[in-house]
Specification:
Number of strands: 16
Helix content: 25-40%
Shape: globular
Structural class: alpha+beta
Strand order of the largest sheet: 5-6-7-8-9
Radius of gyration: 29 Å
Order of helices and strands: HHEEEEHEEHEEEEEHEEHHHHHHEHEE
Largest sheet: 5 strands, antiparallel
CATH class of the largest domain: Mainly Alpha
Mean pLDDT: 83
Number of helices: 12
Distance between the termini: 37 Å
Low-confidence stretches: 1-34, 106-111, 122-134
CATH topology of the largest domain: Arc Repressor Mutant, subunit A
Length: 341
């Protein structure tokens, strides 16, 4: 189990104080101020096994590294990013709600309009409040306050978390650390528009804010294309409605991989209705209302979930005489489907 990094400076100083007398008596010992000894002490004091935000140690963040994935408790991560956020957690579910002022623009509209009219030579007058003549403009009243909101929910055992109506895949799932809900740090970083890097030598998770980025990720209606979501959720349901979530995501990956591959049409409708490709498109079952998990799978795919990043074909597992089985490279089997690239 990995825990938060702590400084070893005091221990290092204690050790140095004990060995200095011995060094004075030993002609082969390094001088206390020698470059080699300084580097040794500096190395001892170096921060290891920690999370840093913009170069600063995030001491309050609770985290654990499991199988190469850094999981961070949602509550401690949110507190790091926004101390005023409302966080409620019980029974393995955490809810986050917060709002941040993004931009406050003081607008002296009267001055702006008068100046514009003056420059254009217009005789258009600007109406003034009689009581306001001769007084300083009230910039507060004219201020344009823009808020950014975040609504986040994460449940232990789930394969994803939701933020502002979006579904973010957590490969390996949402887990518990010390009875607190935790998610992969890269997923939580997406919520706050942070960049993530990793220093393998010192086991440091390096978070950094993006210049001029919004405080939270954009809402679902700004990201999910309604037409793509409509067709993607329906083909996922028609092909894999009875399959596990991972299998549904894999089918969605195949469809979107084709959309992004120059050998196939460049839009989802033409990919699905390409001749002799997807049986539900010709049989009409593609028009059936998708179940809830198929819609969730479609949103996960549109938000970057990848379990089959290279697959372009799939068929029933064991269908060895199919075109894909005979001519394509096998990748993996998930549920009732075999996938090929």
């Amino acid at each position: 189990m990995k825990t938060r990094a702590t400084s070893f400076a005091l221990a290092a100083l204690a050790v140095v104080s004990l060995i200095l007398p011995a060094m004075a008596a030993d002609p082969d010992a390094l001088p206390a101020e020698s470059p080699a000894k300084s580097e040794e002490i500096e190395e001892t004091e170096k921060v290891r096994n920690a999370v840093l935000l913009d170069g600063e140690l995030a001491e309050t963040v609770e985290f654990e590294v499991v199988d190469g994935v850094c999981y961070v408790t949602v509550s401690s991560f949110v507190s790091l990013m926004d101390a005023e956020a409302m966080v409620e957690e019980e029974d393995g579910i955490v809810y986050v709600n917060t709002s941040t002022v993004v931009d406050v623009v003081a607008l002296d509209e009267t001055a702006d309009e008068s100046e514009a009219a003056e420059e254009s030579g217009s005789d258009q007058s600007v109406e003034l409040d009689a009581d306001a003549v001769g007084t300083e403009p009230d910039l507060t009243a004219a201020a344009d306050v823009v808020n950014a909101d975040l609504d986040l929910t994460a449940a232990a055992g789930a394969a994803y978390l939701t933020a502002n109506g979006r579904y973010l895949y957590a490969q390996g799932g949402v887990v518990l650390i010390n009875d607190r809900v935790a998610a992969p740090v890269r997923v939580l970083a997406r919520v706050y528009n942070l960049d993530v890097d990793y220093d393998a030598e010192d086991e440091l998770v390096l978070l950094s804010r993006r210049e001029e980025a919004e405080p939270y990720l954009a809402d679902a209606d700004e990201v999910y294309d309604a037409d793509v979501l409509y067709w993607l959720s329906r083909i996922i349901h028609a092909e894999s409605g009875n399959q596990p979530l991972e299998g549904k995501i894999a089918v969605g990956n195949v469809v979107m991989n084709r959309v992004n591959d120059p050998r196939f049409p460049d839009n989802i409708y033409d990919v699905l209705f390409q001749k002799n490709q997807f049986t539900p498109a010709s049989s009409g079952s593609i028009y059936r209302e998708p179940n809830e998990e198929s819609v969730v799978a479609a949103m996960l795919v549109l938000d970057g979930a990848q379990v089959m990043p290279e697959a372009l074909f799939f068929n029933g597992a064991g269908a060895t005489r199919s075109y894909a089985a005979r001519t394509r490279t096998y990748v993996a089997t998930i549920g009732d489907h075999a996938f090929y690239k």
